[in-house]
């Protein structure tokens, strides 16, 4: 064992001792709540009746056209406007560096190929999974499958796990979380047409014309309320885990590739789940990162976690290292209750995501607000302001198409071990002590990309779900 590992192991056991000591300092009531009857219940969070976010006044329905990704297709004032002179700067720089034999570490030919291929199903799936899927009963069946809402919830959750969900929950659809209008996915559809041509050997043009930049600017979708029937009021929300080791290689193509692999994988999951629901006799609208609404508040409502300072879902098992997707349906399903993890309290003392954000997009102070501070945010829910355009500009100007620092540096981003889950439970109580421990233990030191490629393939991902 290397000297560094021995030191880290020693520090970890010391830290665990400290954590357990802190556990003993809790009041008997709090400790009982935390420990319960044994180790298993100790690591469950309490279910609560009210979701752990604060709504102030009316909630604004967000127009997806204003999302930073959507703006890349129409907003000429942004450096990341795709068809402008600066569009995709970092991507073109990377190609040039490879061609001249001077690639940056983590951005060589092999790394770039992994990233570019990882988005395949993302593009093709976004093309296919962005509309209402009508019920399709097998021949001979005339009635939808009926059961109790409780059993229906159990059934769809098992189906979601069967199709690869890392976590799954259910909730009633709060239409405040739906976009007013969709936009982004229409662009993915047009981008996907070339890939369809390649993958399925189709004649170019068979799928219809590709939108011009001018047409993209003018694109106007119908109101989501006219697209999504009112009876579609239940949501199955799923999370796809992203590889911990890939996210240890922050600011590299391997990390970006993992982001897009998860986006691709969620399309696999939601299309299969939507089809399952159709065969059961119900309507399904699969959704991924492009909507028709905001996945994170739906995930909070479904008891999958809370939103952090970084604007991401913080999940009990995977922290912010999850991609959110799911299916909206009219199948009667029992909703889950939200959970209370105390994330907001810990975020107030932590701030590591803001400290390590290379673009300065995450707020460093503790003033959360329900106002729409930036054009990319909606109003009504109290949260830390987040400048998504600044973030997206950093990606496209410096890091090809993504960045994972706000996932990598978050103390909730840990392998799924009992020790780390215990530490997450203690986080709101330990506060700044845990932040100091996080730095001292060296969890945040990024690893080199070559060591990711050199891992034993047969012991690889999803490692954390095995623990
Ligand atoms: S993705 Fe990177 S640039 Fe964007 S908010 Fe997170 S850390 Fe900052
Ligand atoms: S890094 Fe810290 S402040 Fe940021 S989301 Fe994670 S816990 Fe909250």
Offer a few descriptive terms:
2 domains; 45% helix; disordered N terminus; 6 strands; 467 residues; single chain; alpha+beta; two-stranded antiparallel ribbon; globular; binds iron/sulfur cluster
Mean pLDDT across the residues is 86
Q: Percent of residues in beta strands?
A: 5-15%
General shape: globular
Ligands and ions found: iron/sulfur cluster
Total E-strand runs: 6
Low-confidence stretches: 1-13, 23-41
Task: Write the H/E string, N to C.
Answer: HHHHHHHHEHHHEHHEHEEEHHHHHHHH
- The total of helices stands at 22
Cofactor: corrinoid
Pfam families: Fer4_16 (PF13484)
Organism: Dehalobacter restrictus (strain DSM 9455 / PER-K23)
Subcellular location: Cell membrane
How is this structure best summarized?
The chain is of the alpha+beta class and 467 residues long. The protein has 22 helices and 6 strands.
General description of the model:
The protein is α+β, with helices and mostly antiparallel strands and 467 residues long. It has 2 domains: 1-44; 57-420 and 432-466, no CATH class. The protein is 45% helix and 6% strand. The protein contains 22 helices and 6 strands. The protein has helices spanning 3-25, 28-35, 39-42, 68-74, 89-99, 109-118, 120-128, 149-162, 184-200, 213-218, 224-227, 244-247, 253-279, 295-301, 343-349, 352-355, 388-398, 405-408, 418-430, 432-440, 449-453, 463-466, and strands at 167-172, 234-241, 284-287, 306-307, 313-314, 322-329. A 4-stranded antiparallel β-sheet has the order 1-2-6-3, sandwiched between helices. Strands 4-5 form a two-stranded antiparallel sheet. Strand 4 (306-307) and strand 5 form a beta hairpin. Helix 1 packs across helix 19, helix 6 (109-118) packs parallel to helix 13 and helix 7 packs parallel to helix 13 (253-279). The longest helix has 27 residues, at 253-279. The two termini are 21 Å apart. Residues 1-13 and 23-41 have low confidence and may be disordered. The protein binds iron/sulfur cluster (SF4) (2 copies). One iron/sulfur cluster is lined by residues 357-359, 361-362, 391, 394, 403, 405-406.
